Structures are given as structure tokens and as C-alpha cells.
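Amino acid chain
________________
===
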Amino acid sequence: MTFEVRLDDLSSPEVAALIAEHLAGMSGASPPGAVHALALESLRKPEVTFWSVWKGDQLCGCGALKGLSSTAGEIKSMRTRPAFLRQGVGQAVLTEIIRRALERGYSSLFLETGTGEAFAAAHALYLRYGFEWCGPFGDYDATEFNVFMQKRLTAPATS
């Protein structure tokens, strides 16, 4: 299945609804105070780049890259709509995030996500893409409800 990953300004009602869906899903799968998902206004900050994923005129998912420093970024707001689960939406947006991180010269990508069955598919996706478990980064604290991952990036060899 082919998906189009679009740089998005978060102005459409469809994208706003997807972010609301994402926040509700994270709140439903994690206890109060353990959700670190970004609301719409936080996704509009200059250090965040946001992509939506489409199949024709159907919004399928999204993902974001937050700049942490000149050498590192954080993956945020990865979400696939239920009708498109296990069809490659996450792979499509994660590939774009990694490509953009390499383009920016980042040497590391980090992420924080939840624990438990609701997050198992996300953990598997990140592990397939070379992410490894790590300790907390930035302002995060480790709890029994979250885990951390990191991918070390290397620029592709040029001939």
C-alpha cells in the first residue's frame, strides 16, 4: 500500500481530530500524569516538524520530530488510525522522520513511549528500525509507565 507523507501545518480539521484522537488514546492507555503526548499548540512550536500520512483523501496517521539540540531529535505524536493499522503507516512516517533527522545532521534520535500491550506494536516497529532501549533523556523521569529508546544515526556513505 502506498502512502503519501506530507509536511503539515496542523491547520486542517482532520489533523486536529487525529491529534485529539491521539491524546485520548494515550490518556486511555496510561495513568494520569504519565502521558507526554503533545497537544496541537505544542506541535506548532518552531522546534517541531509535523507530518501527516495520507492514502488518497484519507488521513491515515501522523508523526513529528522535535529538535532537542543541534545533534539530536525526539520522535513525537506517532499515530495510526485504527482502519490503517499494520498497513505501513508507521513505517512510512518513521522513514521520513529518520530521513529528515539525517538531513539535519542529527547523530541521535530519541523517543519516550508507554508500557503495556497498547504499546507493543510501537515497540516492535522501533526495534525493527534499529532503536535500542535507553535511559531517560531531557526532562523525562523514568516510571513504571514509560520506556525510552534511542537510535544512533550515521549518514549514508557517499561514493
Notes: The mean pLDDT is 92. The first helix runs from residue 13 to 29. Strands lie at 4-7, 48-55, 58-67, 72-80, 108-114, 132-134, 146-152.
